[in-house]
Amino acid sequence: MIIINDRAVDCNAPVITWHESGLQIRPPRGAGCRREEPRKFVLHWTGGENPASTVFRTLQSRGRLGLGVDFCIDRDGTIYQFLDPAIHYGYHVGWRHNPSSIGVEIANYGFRWPVWLKWNLRKVPERARDREIYKVRFRRVRHYIANFYDVQIRAVFALMDSLTRAFPEIERKVPKDAKHAYKHYTLPRKEAVNFCGILGHYHISKRKTDPGPFLIEEVDRYINEGKNGYVY
Ligand SMILES: [Zn+2]
User: Fold this and answer.
1) Residue 166 C-alpha to ligand 1 middle, in angstroms?
2) Is 231 within 8 Å of 221 (Cβ atoms)?
3) Considering its fold, how many domains does the chain have in total?
4) Within a domain: residue 214?
5) Residue 232 lies in a domain
6) What is the pLDDT of residues 106-146, one digit of tens each?
7) Does residue 230 sit within a domain?
8) How far is residue 164's CA from residue 6's CA, in Å, rounded to a whole number?
9) Which of 2, 58, 130, 148 is most exposed, with minimal Cβ within 10 Å?
10) Range of 150's domain?
11) 201: CA distance to ligand 1 center in Å?
């Protein structure tokens, strides 16, 4: 169960809310008051393998007003809910997008730059060495991206199902062009602001790579084909 507008809403994954964890993000630190209906669900990776409690503390300590995100998915697929997205919104993608977005951070160290691969692979966190690494040309550069664990991908699907039911303005779609090819790049600002659906941080910010193209394609396959081999 996640909490939306003070009510418990079904979610097909384990959830720990701020009531149980004590990890609550609220205005003015890392969050604002929701005044418009959310229309975007933005996916991130944390850039590390730390647990949700550490992610929470790190976000809250950034900058004068801190940062915040609505949800965080841990390495074991548990969803931590930090705020009620019908009432507040987290500061995770910049002021233009935050008020209309719901954000989720997913624990994953993310990627290593190819030129430094040998040096960097030694720096892959020890407990993440079992992550599958895929090679992809992304924004004209070859990346080695660490995949999410299956339990984390299942949690993303479950959270998306709950949120799109609760907030119908979040359409079940990812950015694609007229020929149904993925737009794996940063969208023009106006298009990104007005988009209604599921996005990666890289669709919004040129400086960001998270959550990598594979998760966006998995979400799309789940939307169009159902559970896509991920056993519940
Ligand atoms: Zn991000």
Assistant:
1) 23
2) no
3) 1
4) yes
5) no
6) 999 998 766 555 666 667 788 888 999 888 888 788 888 99
7) no
8) 17
9) 130
10) 2-225
11) 5
